[in-house]
Amino acid sequence: MDTTHEQIAGIIKEKFESEVLSVETPYDFLTIHFKKEKIIDLIRYLYDHPVAKFQFLTTLCGIHYPDQKQIAVMYQLHSLVNNWRIRIKIYLPEENAVTPTLTNVFAAANWMERETYDFFGIKFTGHPDLRRILNVEDMIIFPMRKEYPLEDQTREDKKDFMFGR
Amino acid sequence: MADDAIKTQHAVEENRYSTLNLGPTHPATHGIFQNVLTMDGKVIIRSEPTIGYIHRAFEKLSERRPFYQITPLTDRMNYCSAPINNIGWHMTVEKLIGAEIPKRVQYLRVIIMELARISDHLICNTVIAVDTGALTGFVYLFQFRELIYEIYEQICGARLTTNIGRIGGFERDFNDVAWAKLDKFLKEFPEALKEFENLVKRNRIFMDRTIGAGPIAAARALNYGFTGPNLRATGVDYDVRVMNPYSSYEDFDFIIPVGLNGDTYDRFMVRQEEMWESMKIIRQAIEKLPDGPFFSPNVPDFYLPPKEEVYNNMEALIYHFKIVMGETDVPKGEVYHCVEGGNGELGFYLISDGGRTPFRLHFRRPCFIYYQAYAEMIKGANISDAILTMSSMNVIAGELDA
Fold first, then answer.
1. How close B12 gets to chain A, by Cα (Å)?
2. Which residue of B has its CA nearest to A31?
3. How do residues A44-98 score in pLDDT, each as one tens digit?
4. Alpha-carbon span B246 to B256, nearest angstrom
5. How many CB atoms lie within 10 A of CB A74?
């Protein structure tokens, strides 16, 4: 972890010491694992912070971890002034994935959250228009969850043991 | 407040508004997406976009494909500049596996990416001219897009969906025909582009139609996650090539053109200037092109060995088999890599769990993110401005829907 990463982590820990679960830097990219309750407060704090100024939402997406029975939401922010990037991940329980919306801070979050809802079933409370966006409206599943396999499961020729795994 | 005013009015004079379907297959939308417009005469009161008509589930598909098979999926996002998507994806995987890429490969990639940027902007700008009534530039400049496609053809054998290069480099070096065509392009294109520019840049009709059409302020654009020429037209000089240089972009001398008002004319001019800058970069890359291999020799687990070796060399045969069967081991990790695509920051967020396919792959598609501002940008405009706004934002349906 180099000095910039330490500085950003310091800024976050200044106010949210107890909410930070862990700090990592895989491939030199600062990643904060955060408790889900205070996520919007954190992002708003980073947005308003006089030094950090994380005022650009690069992307937002869901990740399903079936082994932990969790769905993560990944927020990636960019401070254009300092050219700092940060990734924040929160973990929601699989059967009740609910988290507040980010649309009040970033207008860009609107469709990104709709997409995440569409594919993972994460409910963003307070979202102005939480409908499916890319899939058909009468779809009843959330297709990016890992329990929906892509290929026909009766096929034997593509099982892992065929490839020595 | 304006919204409420409109709603009350709507309740009182329900018959005053008419509904108009713009799309899904309207020729002026240049792609398959729908806007349901509520019109007061010719003024747009409300617009409701519907997207997803060509959604092909690339993120899900990627979870069942070895890394090299994902490249053709990326082609089909922004199909106007497919090589940038391909090379962006290659670089993401190279970051994950920690591959050192030779300088020559990086420079060749820069040449191709800048050609792709020119062809992308070329389509967008000439189509703006078409939408204002000038078909000539479109037809005239298309022969140069054709020439760019011929260069691709020499390098990778394909034209539109290129699947160009490989993880670790290129499948073959540029041949003489490719260099000759590149020379021809650099010699003839500037003149034609200049002619096109003279045709429209100071054209009274064109200026009247585009200046002030579909504007957005810088702060609003940033809040909406704009990137690329659309953001730069508002005056923010954010360009991934300069902010986070990749593929040796730091070696080249070029400027980032910015606009001021963020309207259709500024977007047009920013793209126009970027084409000149791209040509500057290509010239520098050719001039400084170092010698060396056209692929990285350090990643035999990912780079398909040349065919002669596969037939004559046991090791190469084994690697060939392993790569094609998707049996190579990949390190675990999370990587984000972004490139400056035709429309802005094209990002690849890749999580690998060590399996032969990505655990999760997310594409940051610039179109998808900035198109949500469209409804706001055309509110209160008339329909001809809405068409111009859409074409000048360069909304590509493939990138929108993934």
1. 25
2. B334
3. 999 999 988 999 999 999 999 989 899 999 999 999 999 999 999 999 998 889 9
4. 16
5. 21
